[in-house]
Amino acid sequence: MSSLRRAHFILITLSMLASLLLIGSASAAERPNVLLILVDDLKPALGCYGDPIAQTPNIDALAARGMRFERAYCNQAVCAPSRFTLMLGAHSTSTGLYGLGSQLREIVPDAVTLPQYFAQHGGYRTESLGKVFHIGHGNHGDPASFSVPHFHDKVIEYLDPASTQGGKLTREEAYFTNQHLDRIKSLPRGAAFEAPDVDDIKYADGRVAAETVKRLKAAQARCMQDGTPFFIVAGFARPHLPFSAPKKYWDLYDPSELPLPQFEELPANAPKVAGKRGGEITNYSPVPTDRNARFSEGLKRQLIHGYYASTSFVDAQIGKVLNELNRLGLAENTIVVLWGDHGFHLGDLGIWTKHTNYEQANRIPILIAAPGVTQPGSATQQLAESVDLFPTLAELAGLPAPKVPQPLDGVSLVPVLKNPRSRVRDHAYHAYPKQKLGRAIRTERYRLVEWKPYRNSNAPAEYELYDYQTDPLETRNLAREQPAMVESLKQILTGYPEPLPRNAKPVKKKTAP
Question: Which cellular components does GO assign to this protein (predicted)?
């Protein structure tokens, strides 16, 4: 080959390579951005879900832009495991990550999390702010999941010295800062609520919102400069206890109009293992420390008031983020998801907070606004799980169907986003570990919970069955009265792999959809 022809060949080759590189960068530049909003302890006590009391105009506005999932459920009703299910797309029974102190990289060292998948397969810059992975109770989050260091802030926070006996380290502050974990009960209890007259920025959620606004501005600049798409996860702490929120959000509500629990006994004929009294709520003052103490009506109203005020506070912070997304012109190319990590008992069944397999602890809000896919103001009765968001977001972003080292238990909800009447699963699955492991199947009408010992799979199981058409308050376990329905729902459970013990290495095996 002559030197002239060789030079011509090299030029053509370089030109082709350049074209391929441009095509690749254009593909990345054309991918939608992702804004994932996580809210701690948020049940569907929201205006867009029909709650007549809730003052949540910003979350309602997001729902008006996209799809509301009416029957969405977490996969375990406690912070750390619930966030693992979201980020891994895997049930806790598939990974063994059941506890607040479970260490992701010790148990599933090769896992590829949702943001990691977007970085690896879509060229996304991934960032996290606020409460994303659970940090506390011996857990330190997962720095490997994100492109840049995590923006961390408080979960347990007080401004009034009276709330902490003059500035002392409280039990829950110690838990969430990994201090004195061996002597928690020797520390004082913090207040269950406070309402100082302060600006939003004085609390962590205000600071997380302000930093997220800054990150969106920087992300827009990068998008314009080199086409890098962003995957930003913003996590908000309220309405997790303590109900610390500026006074103006408390002032939105008349305590006398707040809904009190309608039924405050445990379900009749339910197994003892299924019930709950005391727990997390007793770490806060002035809640009685006796697990079986009855709360006064005044205390119930204060706690419920605090929950709604905290929800309105976090709604305002989410509004600041969404307003900036709109102002920057990013909304038209950004998938926005709002997800609550689990529900919250507000005295129903006599239970407070979470940590059960009952409806109020497991039903969550999921809102998805995907430009060009979701119809504004749409809603669906499709049952959905937290694990479904991993494959759903991957498909929406045009990424390959996820193939990851950990089990992938979720199914894509994209067909439902396109058509609310489409169906991709006929039940939701969740679990909660206590003295026994409780695994649950939730259909549109029923919930079956199976309680079995961890180590003896042949031991007799105890069952709960609830019919939400005839008994929405879960007043009575129907398992003995409807054995045929129990057997039918048990067959669904047999389609799932044998649950892993706590903190065991997972078996790479798919579950039933």
Answer: cytoplasm
